[in-house]
Amino acid sequence: MSKVKYALLGFGGIAEDRIAKEGFGCDAKRVGTPKYAELLGATDINPARKEAAAKLGLKWYENTDAVLADADIQAVFIATNNRSHAPLAAAAFAAGKHVLVDKPLAINSDEAKKLVELAKAKKLSLSVDHMMTKNVLNRKARDMVLGGKLGTVNDACFHMEFAYGYDAAEAATWRCADPGELGGPIGDVASHCLYMAEYIFGQRIRSIAAVYYPKMMSIAAEDGALILATLESGMVCSSRVSFRDFRGGLGGTLTGLGFEVFGTDAVLRAYGTLFQLSGYADEPIQQRMEFDTFSKQENFFIDAPENIYQGVIDEHADSILTGKPLSGEEGLHNVLLCEAAHQSAVQGGTGVNIA
Predict the structure, then answer these.
(1) 176 phi and psi angles, rounded to 5 deg
(2) In degrees rounded to 5, what are phi and psi of residue 318?
(3) Which of 95, 156, 229, 248 is the most exposed place for a label (fewest CB within 10 A)?
């Protein structure tokens, strides 16, 4: 079977270690390879990244124009800073390339809507890297919740809280220094919490109410936020996100990235599943999920890892091979949720309906 040929636009640390090595299987001995996709090359505004790409056997392109001019490239994975997502995606569509974007799809909903419209007009596939839905334990959680294993579910909390921005170099990055990038804890990690809430419960969020945490950090972005999301069923779940929390160290931080889902018969508690990990033995923590029926607790672990980035890439590539392009609507919806959280917080926590 022929595979869809991709190039990476942006080749920073995450693009190298997660997207190239894992998602596209450049570290095949460790993670295997995707079924439907192949990575041919990469480019970055920092020419010093050429050496890292060469070590993975990737073709180096001097710039984005060179990538888009290559007839062998069918699709691009955009892994640059948030502000450049929309213009790069639009340029790729103009060149007839399919597009997969690291989240968020764009820095505002106007830009995101234009990309969705462009993809539809060009009949090209557009998707966003909402990779946490591919985590083995997160998928099991969804099955258990929707299968009624917890009884009637009436509450849940999703949380991604860690320390980022206390160091001067971190504070100067686009995530902390430029609120217009849709970085900060809301754009950077609440975005994950919100699509995961929708995934676990199989329904859309229809309104958002949020407040910012008290300002204690010397960063331009918000320190953190508490977000209440009302689902279609009327149930309200919460997300807690921040850049200000030390959580003891690496172990406490990573295991604390997870969620609790509360039912009348049981509670599900996930540890470390809201992150970039897939469950390999060499990862810094072991992800687990606890099923607590109040009289006994059962722990679930990942015995057979499935790479979360490969899941997203294969889904996008398969849509190209089958002629059923993805619309990008999920990415647009997620940007709307993040915008609503900021709008609500600025208004003092009043609810904002999602269009």
Answers:
(1) -105, -30
(2) -60, -35
(3) 248
pLDDT tens, position by position, 248-298: 999 999 999 999 999 999 999 999 999 999 999 999 999 999 999 999 999
Q: Which residue has the tokens 């609810």?
A: 351
316: DSSP letter: H
Count other Cβ atoms within 10 Å, centred on residue 169: 8
| Calpha distance 63→96 (Å, rounded) | 17
Backbone angles phi, psi at 151, to 5 degrees: 75, -145
Nearest to 97 by CA among 175, 162, 6: 6
Token pair in block for residue 279: 């469950």
What is d(CA 275, CA 268) in angstroms, rounded to the nearest whole number?
Answer: 17
Measuring CA to CA, how many Å separate 107 from each of 6, 110, 165, 303?
24, 9, 20, 37
Q: Is the CB of residue 116 less than 8 Å from the CB of residue 126?
A: yes
User: What is the token pair recorded at 56?
Assistant: 């993975």
Whole-model pTM? 0.97
Please report where in the chains the tokens 């860690």 appear, as a residue: 162
Residues 6+ apart with CB under 8 A from 158: 193, 194, 196, 197, 237, 238, 239, 240, 258, 259, 274
Which helix (DSSP H) or strand (DSSP E) does residue 314 occupy? helix 308-321
Distance of CA 293 to the CA centre of its chain: 31
Q: How far apart are CA 224 and CA 160, in angstroms?
A: 10
Q: What is the CA radius of gyration of the chain?
A: 20
Measured CA to CA, the distance from residue 255 to residue 160 in angstroms comes to: 10
Q: What is the DSSP letter of 327?
A: B
